[in-house]
Amino acid sequence: MKELSLHILDIAQNSVRAKAKNIEITVKELIKENILEFSIEDNGTGIPNEIFKTIKDPFTTSRTTRKVGLGIPFLNDTCILCSGHLDIQTEIGKGTILKAYMMYDHIDRPPLGDITSTIVGLVTSNEDINIHYRHFFNNNIFEFETNEIKDVVGEIPLADINIYQWMKEFVKENIQEIQEMNKEQ
Question: What's domain 4-184's architecture?
Answer without folding.
Answer: 2-Layer Sandwich (3.30)
